[in-house]
Specification:
The protein has 191 residues and is mainly α. It has two domains: 127 residues, Orthogonal Bundle (Rna Polymerase Sigma Factor, Chain: A); 63 residues, Arc Repressor Mutant, subunit A. The protein is built from nine helices and no strands. Helix 2 packs across helix 4 and helix 8 packs across helix 9. The radius of gyration is 17 Å and the shape is globular. 27% of the residues are buried. GO terms for molecular function: DNA binding; sigma factor activity. Keywords: Sigma factor, Transcription, Transcription regulation. It holds the Pfam family Sigma70_r4_2. It comes from Allosphingosinicella flava. This is Sigma-70 family RNA polymerase sigma factor.
């Protein structure tokens, strides 16, 4: 049963990647399909970071404008389609938080629990894939400070300055931990 589930998830990922390639070529039907398959997940990401339903909806709209304009930047050889889309949503939401001068929400907003999503979560899709296993392995090879700083910056949306303030350490130290950690991750993932 697990093998069949893996095959289905791989097929879904390949189908989404092919659909994004069609969006790159200006296919509106493909764009509608990408939206239908991913909007609930991306909205959840935006809502978690922004903690405001209206702002999350605005950012989600901006994300899909970016998808339409930048689909040519998606490379199926570098990342899974959901990873690429989730990164767009996360980065756009963090940009909005920084523009407003507020910190990202640390806990799920109550509204995020009400977002309907009949499919597997983005995290479940990532965990099912080989990419997730390799990333988890490579994160495990990092020093504790590097791993913690990378997780807080990239998964929780904290800026380097916010991390330095939270940990009570110099900004340069945080930057150094993350930079060295990302270099080590890159080397590990390329093996």
């Amino acid at each position: 049963m697990q093998g069949a589930d893996q095959s289905r998830k791989s097929a879904d990922r390949a189908r989404l990647a092919q659909t994004l390639v069609k969006v790159r070529n200006g296919d509106r039907a493909a764009f509608a399909e990408v939206y239908a398959k991913t909007s609930a997940k991306l909205f959840g990401i935006c809502l978690r970071i922004l903690a405001d339903r209206s702002e999350a909806e605005d950012v989600l709209q901006d994300v899909y404008v970016s998808v339409w304009q930048k689909a040519g930047g998606f490379d199926p050889g570098r990342s899974s389609p959901i990873t690429w889309l989730a990164s767009l949503a996360r980065n756009r939401a963090i940009d909005r938080v920084r523009a407003r001068g507020r910190k990202p929400a640390e806990a799920l907003d109550r509204e995020a629990l009400d977002v309907a999503d009949p499919g597997a979560s983005a995290l479940a899709i990532l965990e099912a894939g080989e990419d997730r296993r390799r990333l988890t392995h490579c994160l495990g090879t990092l020093q504790d400070q590097q791993r913690g700083a990378i997780r807080e910056a990239f998964y929780m949306g904290f800026s380097y300055a916010e991390l330095a303030a939270r940990k009570g350490i110099p900004l340069g130290t945080v930057k150094s931990w993350i930079r060295r950690g990302l270099i080590s991750l890159k080397e590990c993932l390329q093996q």
